[in-house]
Amino acid sequence: MTLDPIPELTLRRLPQYYRLLKNLRAAGQETVSASQLAEHLDIHPTQIRKDLASTGSQGRPKVGHRIPELMGSIERFLHWDNRSEAFLVGAGGMGAAVLEAAGLDRAGIRVVAAFDANPMRVGKKLQGVPVMPYEKFEDLVRRMHVAIAILAVPEDEAQEAADLMARSGIQAIWNLSMTPVTAPTGVLVQNADPFASLSVLVRKLAESQAPKA
Amino acid sequence: MTLDPIPELTLRRLPQYYRLLKNLRAAGQETVSASQLAEHLDIHPTQIRKDLASTGSQGRPKVGHRIPELMGSIERFLHWDNRSEAFLVGAGGMGAAVLEAAGLDRAGIRVVAAFDANPMRVGKKLQGVPVMPYEKFEDLVRRMHVAIAILAVPEDEAQEAADLMARSGIQAIWNLSMTPVTAPTGVLVQNADPFASLSVLVRKLAESQAPKA
DNA sequence: TAGATTGTTAATCGATTAACAATC
DNA sequence: TAGATTGTTAATCGATTAACAATC
Fold it and tell me: Computed from CA positions of residues B17, B22, B27, B32, in that sequence, does the dihedral angle turn out positive or negative?
């Protein structure tokens, strides 16, 4: 089975649908139409039909999609049902925030160990996850065949941490730090890059405040 | 003066150029060509020329752009020279991480106060910024004419915090929490939405691991 | 049946890339 | 001058939206 590459924008919209579906289900709703989703999310209904079609979910004319089945399709399509183990690098505030969030669990990611350069943090637990020293990282990656690492260190240590990850055999880096990092070919990197969205915001604010011609 | 709306993708690429320019400048380089930037960033040179042109920077044939001037153009274009004040809501780990990062200062954002629902945190300082109770938020927004708020609370409190911001007259919300929030028309919201990038990563990893046909 | 909603094919739109004349 | 690099116009590509036949 080969997986077709899917537009990244579709991959980013699907979790939005999922979150909304969860709310609708909680509100007791059983089915939903593309137009209904469209209204809530301000996305074109045809766009939503295409996105949903790519997950393999099938709706019924006049009824729409059954919410639980649709959620299942999205989970499978995004491989949220994969249940993979991950390491967290950086046991500070950012690391704690991501462990607290529901998204990790939903995406099927289980963080089994955290690592930190600061000896004060080593030996403690963060949200129930043991914190270990950097020295143990590579060995554990190889012994446990962990493919995913979450990068949550301060920005001046980010690239260094990414290098350690790549060197240790990590296959995919999710970079939550405030600055993008790079890794050698073969290692997937996804930079959350929060400051990119700040640039957009600052510019949009200026546009909205500029006196109109 | 009216500002043309600029493609969001351009706005997201410009900070990348800026970071690279900073490194090149630190390495003693004085000018740079679009092709050079392109090589480092794996972006098409013509794309870079267009992006740079939209900032108003002018390069010279055979030479390229002078790095300091180019950096200045990007700063002005992104309104990083605006020097605006902002409030931080959520004085936990996420809030601390963003205050530590260089990006805020670079974007001209100065966080003058933080707010937290937890009385344990109120009265302390976070990276030199005083932490106050939620009750003071609205009054201070109006008195100080603060337009930008940074949302850095745990995900289950995010929407509530966004509502408070909108109600208090905040014009632009930069949402760093792990879940997107919404706000009434007229209030700009930019969700960093880190989990969107996780979805992309998990899917790409699955694609790369799937046996080829 | 009538009509709402689906999924798909075609048209449009916007962003990226190619081609090229201008110029330092 | 020759050639590298610019900025811009035209071509391509991909994503979004419109149109519509199928169907519950």
Answer: positive
Q: How far is the CA of B132 from the C1' of C17 (A)?
A: 52
> What span, in angstroms and rounded, lies between the C-alpha atoms of A137 and A132?
8
Token digits of residue A63: 């009824």
Q: Which nucleotides of C are covered by protein (CB under 7 A)?
A: 3-9, 14-19, 22-24
User: Do B197 and A188 lie within an 8 Å CB cutoff?
Assistant: no
Backbone angles phi, psi at A31, to 5 degrees: -130, 165
Rounded to an integer, the average pLDDT of A65-89 is: 96
Paired with B189 in beta bridges are B173
Alpha-carbon span A187 to A172, nearest angstrom: 6
* Contacting residues of A for B14, CB less than 8 Å apart: 199
Task: Decide which of B4 and B204 is more confident.
Answer: B204
- Percent of chain B at pLDDT > 70 equals 98
pLDDT recorded at residue A2: 64
Angle between helices A34-41 and A45-54 (to 10 degrees): 120
Query: For A179-196, what is the mean pLDDT?
Result: 93
Q: How many CA atoms lie within 13 A of B125 on its CB side?
A: 4
Half-sphere exposure of B149 (CA within 13 A, CB side): 35
User: In sequence order, what DSSP letters do the residues of A177-207 get, joined into one string?
Assistant: SSS-----TTSEEEE--HHHHHHHHHHHHHH
